[in-house]
Design brief:
Largest sheet: 6 strands, antiparallel
Order of helices and strands: EEHEHEEHEH
Distance between the termini: 31 Å
Structural class: alpha+beta
Helix content: 25-40%
Length: 146
């Protein structure tokens, strides 16, 4: 299985009409259909709104540094795959599918050990059908049809 770095991007609106920027990863069918990545881990990062529900430049830079460290830690041996990023309405959400959330948690702690304590929370769900990712792909199909 070859992990590519092909992404699509779009914008949506939250219920309060704040913009949400969405990035979804393409070319993941091999991983989705393998049956090896049955757990979904969502990382929620609340931040202070800088403008229109978006993070400040400093927060955005820190988020990118954290994202890079985490991806390097969990994707190097395909323990987990980052599938989606949602940013807006005072929150960034990272969505990963993983082989095991226990080991993912260990890697998360290691990857973030050099950063100050971050305002993040985690949610884990068994999702062997990749339901969240399929919803993300439906957004992409809608974009492609326009």
């Amino acid at each position: 299985m070859k992990l590519t770095d092909n992404w699509f991007s779009t914008m949506a609106e939250a219920d309060n009409e704040m913009p949400i920027f969405i990035s979804g990863r393409d070319d993941l069918d091999e991983f989705r259909l393998s049956g090896k990545f049955k757990e979904r881990v969502e990382i929620y990062w609340k931040y202070e709104s800088h403008h229109n529900g978006m993070p400040s430049d400093a927060d955005g830079e820190l988020m990118e540094q954290v994202l890079d460290a985490l991806r390097n830690s969990v994707e190097k041996d395909k323990l987990a795959i980052l599938t989606g990023i949602y940013t807006g309405n005072n929150e960034r959400t990272l969505v990963f599918y993983t082989r095991t959330s226990r080991v993912f948690g260990e890697r998360l702690n290691e990857a973030l050990s050099t950063f100050p304590q971050l305002p993040i929370t985690l949610y884990v769900e068994i999702d062997p059908e990749w339901n969240e990712y399929q919803e993300l792909c439906e957004i992409k199909q809608f974009i492609d049809e326009e």
